[in-house]
Please model this.
Amino acid sequence: MPRGLWRLLAAFVLTFLSVGTAVGQPMPGSEIAPGGKLRGAVIGIRVLGGVGEPIGRFVAEKLGVSFEPVVYPNPQAYEQSFGKDEWDIAIGPRVLAPADKADVTADVWLIDLLYLEAEGKTFASADQVDRAGVKVGTIQNSPSDRFLTRALKSAELVRIPLSANFPGDAIELLRAGKSDVFGADSGLIASIAAGYPGATIVPGAFNTVRAALALPKGRSAAAQARLAEIVSEAKRTGVVQKAIDQAGLKSGVRVAPD
Model:
């Protein structure tokens, strides 16, 4: 066989093998949403799910699929969903995404954690709360709870579940003297304050929650890169800021820097 023909045949075989290999590889988008729709896990509160759902819809739009929110009633249920194949992406606090069960993107939005003090209490700043005899209310297993459990050295932590009666439960805790301050994200603090006019927000944040998107552990580097690319676009083009604005969050919540 002439040498030129051998070269042509070899090139054809290499091209065929290359295409065959590529066909066998899943596309990043189909790996992120393998069921043909994007199931997005969120926690059903304004500062998390209220912001997260529009971001999830944007991700789905970029992947060319529909979006289906999977809403969890509290942080504990959200955290326990990891590893159970109940969703395709999770949108929430990175502290609730177990490292052995998820790969997390860069931060998407930031949420200040604040104290609301009961009527008659006076704390000059957030760093003055941790004193002997002070009772600090918070939501069980929330990012606030996790931080305060580690950080408080002298004050007593009083935990309540996030229920359908929130913020009434938090208001009752403060009014009954069962806690001197209540620590939570800025969105929930605003909800509590709206129902308890005598309470005031203690100046300064005691911590910041970093919210991000997560994929189940084991997705390919290409799938992780594609999601990171979409997240960056959402931040750069104002999608995240619009989600914050539409959720009615006027302070204490902001787009995370790149």
Summary: The domain at 111-207 is CATH 3.40.190.10 (D-Maltodextrin-Binding Protein; domain 2). The chain is about 40% helix and 25% strand.
